[in-house]
Structure formats: structure tokens, C-alpha cells
């Protein structure tokens, strides 16, 4: 089945944006508040819609038209955003978000550029077989690495783990983070695998750059009792990741 492309006068059903108002490049973030913050970095920003967790803005960055959209928490809801952007004609999507470090050296304030994602989410398995890889566009990965290093922050590159669980359960082990650490996974987040799979299905570019807001294994806090993403060191990494994403989005 060929990828769906909607006409210019169509309205995206859940994003509620008109196709003709979208740029061909989009920065996606989980938090609607962060999307508003990104919009402030654009020239002539306009809020197009605010429906559920999906807040959509348009503007330009360094003279290039861009769209900014929030997708909420988790792959299932985020997949709606990614799919509708692709159907609306977006050809490059970069996700900038937060993630938890898995390797001991990937700690608060670092940036991770994803080369691909482990598909431990639920939605991607309803789109393609388990054997199908979730990989970022190589050219975007390289460019994001260069742009992230230009911030002066500590940068890591590698495969991330995309899972559906945020807070762990004391009943069963939902995600074996130590096993994934041994496998070389760099960080854990909740949406990248869905983005990379959907982008592959539509034949468009996709990348991911993440600010690290903690490391449950290094901090001996696997229960996440002390989780606090609202610290200056995390804010600095978030700003660095967003700057890298915007620079590569328009490059």
C-alpha cells in the first residue's frame, strides 16, 4: 500500500492543522509547553492548532519554514502525530526530547543522538513485523552529532530503547534495563521507534536528539523515587538538544 498523501486543502483529523499550513520540515517534542518554547525561537511564529496533546506552530528558522508539533507521552499517541505530519507532506521530522541514560557515562546534562531504536513499544509491532528495524536517517544522525557537539555539552551516539513504561512496577520487571545496558543501549525514551518506523514507511527523513535527565542505573534509583527533570543541568541539555535539532532541520 502506497503512503497516503492528503490534498493541500485537507485538515489533519487529530492535529487539526490544514495541510497547506505545514512546512516540509517539522520538529516534534512531547511537551506542549516545550513546543511553545520552541515557537519563541522562530521568526513570525503562529500557533495553528491546540487539540488534545497536539499543539502545532509554524514559523521560520534561519529563513527556512518549519513546523513545530507536540505529541504527548508514549509511542501510541505520538504515532498519530508522526503519521499525520507525513500524510500532510512533511518530509523531514526530528524529535527532540528527554531520555534516561542507560550506560554509566550517560548522565544528567548529556545529549544523546539516536542511530536507531529498540522497538519495545506496542504500536510499531502493529505496523510492521518484529524483524523490521527502527533506524534514523544516517545523514541526519551525523549532522545532529556535529550540531550537538557544537553546544559544548557531553554528546553520545547510539541505539536508544523505546518503551511504553515510565514508572516501574514492583509486581513484575517490565523492562530489564541492565540487560539492555549490557547490549550497549545508550538511553531509554518512549517515542523514537515509532517515529523511525513511520518515517521509513513513508520514505521520509527522521532523526532523534535527546537531553538526558537522569540515569536510574548509575543513580541506583531504578524505582525513580528521586526523578526530577526540572533542574538547571537538564534545562541546559534540553536547550542544547533543541538548538541542534533546529539547526539540522533547516540545514
Automatic annotation (TrEMBL):
Organism per entry: Leucobacter exalbidus
EC numbers for this chain: 2.4.2.3
Keyword annotations of the record: Glycosyltransferase, Transferase
Listed name of the protein: Uridine phosphorylase
Catalytic EC class: transferase
Catalysis performed (reactions): uridine + phosphate = alpha-D-ribose 1-phosphate + uracil
UniProt key word Glycosyltransferase: yes
Cellular compartments per GO CC: cytosol
InterPro entries: Nucleoside_phosphorylase_d, Nucleoside_phosphorylase_sf
SUPFAM superfamilies reported for this sequence: Purine and uridine phosphorylases
One GO-annotated biological process of the protein: uridine catabolic process
An example molecular function term from Gene Ontology annotations: uridine phosphorylase activity
Pfam family, one: PNP_UDP_1
Annotated ranges, domain Nucleoside phosphorylase: 25-224
